[in-house]
Design brief:
The chain is an alpha/beta fold. The mean pLDDT is about 90.
């Protein structure tokens, strides 16, 4: 029988590609500084008609780091980053590192309740956010005094560009919120100043990325300088990146795919990162036509959207030499349709926040096989220096072809969760990640994802924990019981559905409850449908049976 220690997947690598790599850089700051020294005039960011070179990015991040330190930011502190896919996101990451601290990547869709939790749990002492998000969300959070944020820096989505697209910015104007520092003013006030040199360790936290993981409480994954630098180099070597390439940033930059598969690889090879505030299909297609990127990685819904736009031709996609997708299962038929329309094959990639993006990927130039029994498309093979075991419930390795939990070890695996030792022990015993995903490996070493071990809902690559949605529903006075499950959705892969029993005499409607949730949580989390039942199914001890509710949709 083939054993995992023999690493049978190594024979699937492209010819001449080693099974292991020796990283050039130990930290993200080393990686960035080397690129600036090597290629200061290379374009780092393209944002509509705005361009920043590596030298520009270096100077701006210097200025922001100086401003942070001048306002009390110290080594080991955290800077919350609450913006869309704007140049300010990249600048703030590098600035946090130069100031001796770490960034906290925050989803710009988060509302007041969610932002309060993230800032409080991370202990962030500074916050950089879009001016519009400050006015609509962050201002109230800071005013409560529940966080330790003492410095707020605001920026505008209109910064770093002169040509605005009304599809994204209709009616927008640059704000200057009272009581905050202005990022553009920081650049001018501190031009030419440099922060005191710092020398972070590979084990130091570079970014805190929040994930629900295997419990309902969001946990800060400690993405260290070493784990992020390693997988940035994995992208480079796996796909043969050079400075002649360019990256189309379709994934959110706060997400681990955006952090590593967009920012990390672009900073490493000093190639352009093409970003445009947020995903709007027509805007993205225009960016492709104008900037001619060679690579992107994103959720499958992105590619369905883009390839389905009227007037899009194969010529529009001709600049790409590699396209990868991860974050949600992909049907083989979707891959085929995309190839028909664009001439490009979508390579699967698989990983988690805890693995700093890829733990598995399809080798460039190869096509993933389809399991003849389940019809599942392979998620690829383990990437460099990575070992993935498949274990049963008793923690023993299963034979090839048998289903069990993916358990991953390698240089890209995080050391733990921020201030959560119990969760770290549970999910990372001995430093080996219990992914909570189940699947199998075939005789040739290809891995297939079958299902999730827990109840996590994966909506277009965004993870939704049912309990969080249920807690919001229970806040409505008409709700007696609530349970949330994921149901199949042709477009998003999965979507959120709630089952509710009303309080006696209550007459709340489905539309009213959906709107209630919509006002309190990010857009990808609120339920798209609600079904009312007299009583929800329960065990004899009173625990609601989600599996019976899921069966109602099968």
């Amino acid at each position: 029988m083939t054993t995992y220690t023999e690493r049978p997947w190594t024979k699937l690598y492209s010819e001449g590609r080693p099974a292991d790599i020796t990283p050039d850089f130990a930290t993200m700051l080393d990686l960035f500084n080397a690129s600036v020294a090597r290629a200061p005039d290379n374009i780092a960011i393209k944002y509509f008609d705005g361009v920043l070179t590596m030298a520009d990015l270096d100077r701006r991040s210097d200025s922001l780091a100086v401003a942070l330190v001048d306002n009390g930011f110290a080594a080991g502190d955290r800077l919350g980053v609450y913006v869309q896919n704007n140049p300010a996101f990249v600048i703030s990451l590098v600035a946090a590192w130069k100031a001796g601290g770490a960034a906290v990547a925050i989803n710009p869709m988060n509302k007041q309740r969610e932002l309060t939790y993230l800032l409080t749990d991370s202990g962030a002492s500074a916050l950089l956010c879009l001016d519009e998000l400050y006015e609509s969300v962050a201002k109230e959070v800071i005013a409560t005094g529940e966080t330790v944020v003492t410095t707020v820096i605001t920026c505008s989505p209109l910064d770093e560009q002169s040509r605005h697209d009304d599809r994204l910015f209709a009616g927008s104007e640059r704000l200057r919120p009272e009581g905050t520092l202005d990022l553009e003013e920081i650049f001018s006030q501190h031009e030419g100043r440099k922060p005191a040199p710092v020398d972070p360790s590979p084990d130091d936290v570079a970014v805190l990325s929040y994930t629900s993981g295997t419990t309902g409480v969001p946990k800060g994954a400690m993405n260290t300088h070493g784990t992020m630098a390693f997988n940035s180099q994995t992208y480079r070597d796996w796909m043969g990146f050079t400075a002649d390439d360019s990256v189309l940033g379709v994934a959110p930059l706060f997400h681990i795919t955006g952090l590593i598969g967009h920012i990390g690889i672009a900073l490493l090879v000093a190639c352009p990162l093409v970003i445009n505030h947020r995903f709007e299909p027509g805007v993205v297609i225009d960016a492709i036509r104008e900037h001619r990127p060679t690579f992107t990685v994103g959720s499958i819904t992105v590619f369905i959207n883009l390839s389905g736009l009227e007037g899009v031709t194969k010529q529009d996609w001709s600049s790409f030499r590699m396209v990868y997708s991860g974050g949600a299962p992909i049907a083989p038929a979707v891959i085929d349709r995309f190839m028909e329309k664009t001439g490009l094959y979508i390579h699967n990639i698989y990983g988690l926040t805890e693995t700093n993006s890829p733990s598995h990927a399809v080798p460039l130039g190869k096509k993933a096989p389809v399991d003849p029994n389940s019809g599942a498309l392979s998620v690829g093979v383990p990437v460099f220096n990575t070992v993935v075991r498949i274990l049963d419930e008793a923690g023993k390795e299963v034979p090839v072809g048998h289903v069990g939990e993916f358990v991953t070890s390698g240089p890209q695996v995080i050391p733990g969760y921020w201030n959560k030792p119990e969760a770290t022990t549970e999910s990372l015993p001995g430093g080996e990640l219990r992914t909570g995903d189940v699947g199998f490996m075939d005789e040739d070493g290809w891995f297939y994802l079958v299902d999730r071990k827990k109840d996590m809902i994966n909506a277009a690559g965004y993870k939704v924990w049912p309990r969080e949605v249920e807690d919001v529903l229970y806040g409505h006075p008409a709700v007696r019981e609530a349970a949330v499950v994921g149901v199949a959705d042709e477009y998003r892969g999965e979507t959120v559905k709630a089952y509710v029993s009303r309080e006696p005499g209550a007459t709340v409607t489905e539309e009213e409850l959906i709107e209630f949730c919509k006002q309190q949580m990010a857009a990808y989390k609120y339920p798209r449908s609600i079904q009312f039942l007299d009583d929800l199914p329960k065990t004899t001890t009173g625990k609601i049976l989600r599996r019976e509710l899921r069966a109602l949709n099968s």
